[in-house]
């Protein structure tokens, strides 16, 4: 609270359009008002008798608007007393337009705040608040002024509530300026409540909003407030930078009051940082002189003297430090006195308001009681007639409600049993009616056949032509099936692009029905473009082996899958072509693809196609790539769940290996997606491909963009110039490998160097020191190396931190950080056997 009061009155004036029209006008008006205050005067009321004001014409709204502009300019010139007198005369007219009245209220509250006439300020605020619903365009200004006014008296809860309301009202406006001012008010409320972290966020938003609105001074105030919020959180270096920025902006607009506050922030930051004591002392001395000549300044003077005391103490001048501390205590007492006066004025107004409200409530209660007594007799006379009419109306209403309920129940039941897109019955209702039809056919001894129908490559229809085209295809398919089946069977949509038809008949009848359905299928026109598609079907007729309706559907599904495996656009019959042993002996396959480092930029069309077409998809990638893959394949299995803190990674690799091979051996078409290039620094992809091939299964790998490829591009390394050695860091430590210092060397996963247990995920200084010791055989410890991390998103920037080799143990690492060792600055020596070759 003490840190924002010096700018609070000016900010309230700005909310009414006064203080920040121009910085020079604001500063001049403030200084002139101080110079003209009557001796001993504390409020506007005490000065009214000393200032005449021109008459208010009040002939029409246009004249009222002109009077307001004249009085506003009078206030800008520094004659607050004369302006306040005229504005109060304007408010006395009951027919004043509501929007103009709200503007007048905000201005009068601002002037009362400048003069610290708190009773008048809160009285005017209480009068103005009921007009808010009638003037929403002025709501942001009024709520902002109210929020700042409540902040001055310590009512931070109400100030925050009003500040939030002000921001919401401003966001509903097309004018960007109210949002700038409302964010200022809300930031001040948070600062009053000493919630400086959130205040910092709102100050940042204030700077953006005020910059967009073109209000340079409010943008400067936001930068100052941002610096204060950072200073209160102990971030004095950043606070100093924002203080310097706001000072430049304030001085550019000749706003002395704001410039003084910015200088105080700079001095405070310098003292806290222990830097530039002479500059800090000069700033504080100048500020002390300035604040003694302006009103009010007790809080600012107290802070100035405290800082001067701290400076004197740092110089060892205890006598001067004590003198400044006494001055600070004196000004703090004055500030506390004024704060108590504000608080007392607020509480008095609150008390008076509550007392008036109680009296009004009592009078209203007495009036209501009198009216109740007057109407009770009339009500008794109407009671019998009303009761009779009510009974008749209730009876009619019940009949209408019953009719509507029956109609709604019928509609809801239909909706629960049918698919809204194709208007066929849904899978749940199919099970119910299908069980009954299956039982009737069994009792009658007639054949019963299930036909599973599926649109071929429906996902490609959605991806190529859009979901609207897919919906159009489903609607058309539902219509054709209804026309073909009619009342001779049961047709249902089971979900997605799958349909099921049940008929009392044999396989021949089912084939004839499917032939009629195929004849009806024509290209669907979507956005004036024809879209053709085909269907596959599976047929199963009941026989002696059919034990249940579920088994019948299951066999029809298997026949459908067989038709798809045979090439789609065909039918397969369980009873004739698809025995159990044939369907269950399907051969699995495996394809391993890489998603690159940045999935959206690096993944290939071939990899996307493999992901979309596979029956089972496994994924081991970063969270961004995983999120995009699960949008393509919501059923994708996240292999990252196998990792756990402290678990041996070799066990994790075995679990991942087993999970992939389990699905491949089950006859599924499996696609495994790995981060970067699936064959670079990846044991599992190579291992599962070897296992699948050893078992006679089809297995292959599609390449991807690796981190090493990104490294060459980001760091500008050409492997063709001197060659590149690329090793895993722990492998390099374990084995006796020779380094060629005349070419670049890459050590991968340097954070895990020396992790013999394969359980660590963080860097270990001991392991890094061992790595440095071994590298010192070839390189001086002062040799410059690079810690590299590829960017995972297009908006990110790759990391390329340069440091000395000996500083590696103290650096920061991620699990995938790569150590790049540039070659020593030596020229390549020519092999004597090829000395005759030209350069």
From TrEMBL:
SUPFAM superfamilies: Nucleotide cyclase, Tetrapyrrole methylase, TPR-like. The chain crosses the membrane at residues 382-402. Keywords: Membrane, Nucleotidyltransferase, Signal, Transferase, Transmembrane, Transmembrane helix. It is an enzyme of class 2 (transferase). One of its GO terms (biological process) is cell adhesion involved in single-species biofilm formation. It comes from the Bacteria. This is diguanylate cyclase. Residues 1-21 form the signal peptide. The keyword Transport does not apply. GO terms for molecular function: diguanylate cyclase activity; methyltransferase activity. It catalyses: 2 GTP = 3',3'-c-di-GMP + 2 diphosphate. Residues 446-576 form the GGDEF domain. Its cofactor is Mg(2+). Its EC number is 2.7.7.65. The keyword Signal applies. GO terms for cellular component: plasma membrane.
């Amino acid at each position: 609270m003490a840190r924002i009061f010096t700018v609070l009155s000016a900010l309230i004036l700005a909310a009414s359009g006064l203080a920040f029209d121009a910085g020079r006008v604001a500063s001049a008006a403030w200084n002139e008002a101080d110079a003209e205050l009557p001796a001993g005067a504390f409020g506007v009321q005490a000065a009214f008798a000393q200032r005449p004001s021109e008459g208010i014409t009040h002939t029409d709204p246009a004249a009222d608007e002109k009077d307001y502009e004249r009085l506003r300019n009078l206030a800008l010139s520094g004659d607050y007393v004369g302006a306040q007198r005229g504005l109060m005369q304007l408010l006395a007219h009951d027919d004043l337009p509501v929007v103009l009245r709200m503007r007048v209220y905000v201005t009068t509250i601002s002037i009362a705040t400048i003069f610290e006439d708190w009773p008048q300020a809160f009285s005017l605020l209480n009068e103005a608040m009921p007009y808010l619903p009638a003037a929403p365009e002025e709501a942001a200004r009024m709520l902002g002024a109210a929020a700042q006014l409540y902040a001055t008296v310590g009512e931070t809860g109400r100030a925050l509530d009003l500040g939030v309301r002000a921001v919401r009202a401003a966001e509903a406006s097309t004018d960007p300026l109210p949002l700038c001012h409302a964010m200022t008010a809300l930031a001040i409320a948070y600062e009053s409540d000493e919630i400086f972290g959130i205040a910092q966020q709102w100050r940042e938003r204030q700077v953006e909003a005020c910059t967009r609105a073109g209000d340079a001074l409010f943008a400067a105030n936001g930068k100052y407030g941002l610096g204060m919020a950072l200073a209160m959180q102990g971030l004095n270096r950043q606070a100093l930078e924002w203080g310097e920025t706001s000072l430049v902006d304030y001085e550019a607009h000749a706003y002395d009051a704001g410039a003084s506050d910015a200088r105080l922030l700079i001095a405070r930051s310098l003292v806290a940082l222990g830097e530039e004591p002479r500059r800090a002392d000069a700033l504080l001395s100048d500020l002390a002189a300035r604040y003694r000549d302006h009103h009010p300044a007790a809080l600012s003077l107290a802070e100035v003297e405290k800082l001067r005391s701290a400076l004197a103490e740092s110089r060892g001048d205890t006598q001067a430090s004590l003198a400044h501390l006494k001055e600070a205590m004196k000004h703090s007492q004055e500030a506390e006195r004024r704060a108590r006066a504000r608080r007392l004025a607020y509480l008095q107004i609150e008390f008076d308001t509550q007392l008036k409200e109680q009296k009004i409530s009592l009078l209203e209660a007495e009036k209501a009681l009198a009216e109740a007594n007057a109407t009770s007799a009339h009500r008794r006379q109407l009671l019998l007639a009303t009761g009779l009419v009510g009974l008749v109306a209730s009876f009619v209403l019940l009949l209408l409600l019953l009719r509507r309920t029956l109609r709604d129940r019928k509609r809801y039941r239909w909706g629960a049993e049918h698919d809204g897109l194709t208007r066929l019955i849904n899978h749940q209702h199919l099970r119910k009616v299908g069980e009954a039809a299956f039982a009737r056919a069994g009792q009658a001894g007639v054949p019963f056949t299930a036909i599973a129908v599926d649109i071929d490559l429906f996902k490609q229809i959605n991806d190529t032509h859009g979901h609207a085209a897919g919906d159009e295809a489903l609607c058309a398919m539902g219509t054709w099936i209804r026309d073909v089946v009619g009342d001779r069977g049961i047709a249902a949509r089971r979900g997605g692009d799958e349909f099921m038809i049940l008929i009392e008949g044999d396989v021949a009848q089912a084939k004839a029905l499917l032939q009629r359905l195929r004849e009806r299928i024509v290209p669907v026109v979507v956005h004036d473009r024809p879209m053709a598609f085909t269907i596959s079907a599976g047929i199963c007729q009941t026989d002696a082996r059919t034990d249940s309706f579920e088994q019948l559907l299951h066999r029809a599904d298997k026949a459908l899958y067989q038709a798809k495996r045979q090439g789609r656009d065909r039918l397969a019959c369980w009873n004739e072509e698809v025995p159990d042993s044939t369907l269950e002996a399907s051969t699995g396959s495996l394809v391993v693809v890489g998603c690159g480092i940045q999935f959206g930029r690096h993944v290939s069309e071939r990899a996307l196609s493999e992901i979309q077409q596979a029956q089972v998809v496994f994924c081991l990638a970063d969270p961004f790539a995983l999120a995009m893959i699960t949008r393509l394949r919501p059923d994708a299995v996240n292999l990252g769940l196998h990792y756990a803190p402290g678990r041996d990674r070799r066990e994790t690799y075995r679990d991942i290996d087993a999970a992939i091979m389990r699905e491949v051996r089950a006859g599924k078409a499996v696609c495994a997606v790995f981060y970067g290039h699936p064959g670079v620094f990846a044991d599992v992809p190579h291992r599962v491909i070897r296992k699948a091939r050893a078992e006679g299964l089809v297995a292959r790998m599609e390449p991807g963009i690796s981190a090493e490829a990104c490294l060459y591009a980001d760091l500008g390394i050409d492997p063709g110039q001197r060659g590149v050695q690329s090793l895993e860091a722990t492998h390099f430590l374990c084995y006796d490998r020779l380094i060629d210092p005349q070419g670049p060397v890459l050590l991968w996963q340097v954070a895990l160097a020396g992790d013999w247990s394969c359980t660590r995920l963080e860097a270990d200084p001991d392991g890094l020191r061992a790595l440095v010791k071994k590298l010192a055989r070839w390189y001086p410890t002062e040799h410059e190396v690079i810690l590299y991390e590829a960017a995972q998103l297009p908006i990110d920037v790759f990391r390329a931190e340069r440091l000395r080799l000996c500083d590696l143990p103290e650096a920061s690492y991620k699990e995938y950080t790569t150590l790049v060792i540039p070659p020593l600055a030596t020229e390549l020596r020519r092999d004597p056997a090829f000395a005759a070759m030209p350069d």
